[in-house]
Amino acid sequence: MRILVLTGAGVSADSGLATFRGVDGLWEGHAIEEVASPHGWRRNPRLVWRFYQLRRAALGGVEPNAAHRALAELERACAQHGVEFRLVTQNVDNLHERAGSQAVHMHGELEWLRCERCGTRVRDLERLDPEMFVPCAACGAERLRPDIVWFGELVPRSEELAQWAEKCTHFVAIGTSGLVYPAAGLIEIARSEGAHTIVQSLDEPANLRHVDAFRPGRACEAVPALCRELAALLP
Ligand code: APR
Question: Of all atoms in ligand 1, which is nearest to the CA of residue 177?
């Protein structure tokens, strides 16, 4: 038994963090290419920096919810039973970690900043002024960028994640619209290799297929029950 979980913005919605494509979606008021693309960063770094500084600051005002905690509990149960458990998230918030999970962040992390000139990465949730860039302490570059994978940029470790999807026996997608690749392609790989595929989301994701077990509803309610069911299957 090898469990692979992929989460999206819906798992953090119940903690108060806006999703991207919901009615109050984060992208409202901002064209995606304006605030989440290398082009946007070059064209208007102040706008992009403000957008991310506000999201970074918001992390201090939210807590993990029951879905994050249930996933961390399932991870511990799998470790005790010697079952491989991997959590991959599209989210850039730190709520999985704060609930006790190890997560691979396909789209980067708000906690980290990166220097485009020398490659230095720093973990920082202290310098949050939306109007003040953070210079690179290593090379003196005037501003670090958010360590986020923007549209048009390569997702790190995507080959490795595809291999995890090939080998898993249970693939669980939680709170994702299934619209953005390569994340949205992982369930297709798992399905084609005969894994059990379980999808939990408020609305039907675009990549849902009839063979998937669909669990509609809010993650904070549906995920704890789902994790208990999976824990009961552990050998
Ligand atoms: N519980 C469960 N699911 C929820 C909840 C909730 N409380 N609220 C919303 N959802 C579901 C929605 O039905 C939707 O399917 O979460 C999903 C959110 O979809 P998106 O907003 O598109 O977020 P996500 O799928 O994570 O976006 C993928 O797109 O913009 C890029 O890089 C960004 O990582 C992001 C990627």
Answer: 15
Whether cis (ω within 30° of 0) applies to the bond prior to 45 is no
For the question of residue 107 being annotated catalytic, the response is yes
Q: Is 108 in the pocket of ligand 1 (CB under 6 A)?
A: no
- Active-site annotation holder among 96, 107, 170, 196: 107
CATH of 19-61+108-148, one of 2.60.120.620, 3.40.980.10, 3.20.20.210, 3.30.1600.10: 3.30.1600.10
CATH superfamily for 1-17+64-107+155-235 is TPP-binding domain (3.40.50.1220)
Question: Which tens digit of pLDDT belongs to each residue from 71-93?
Answer: 999 999 999 999 999 999 999 99
- pLDDT for position 34: 84
Mean pLDDT of the chain: 95
In this predicted model, what pLDDT tens digit does every residue of 143-167 receive, in sequence order?
A: 999 999 999 999 999 999 999 999 9
Output the residue whose Cα is nearest ligand 1's atom 30.
20
User: What CA–CA distance (Å, rounded) separates 5 from 176?
Assistant: 11
Stated as kind and residue range, the H or E segment containing 231 is helix 219-232
Global confidence as pTM: 0.96
Asked if residue 94 has pLDDT above 90, the reply is yes
Question: Can you tell me which residue has the tokens 């392609």?
Answer: 185
> How many CB atoms within 10 Å of residue 153?
13
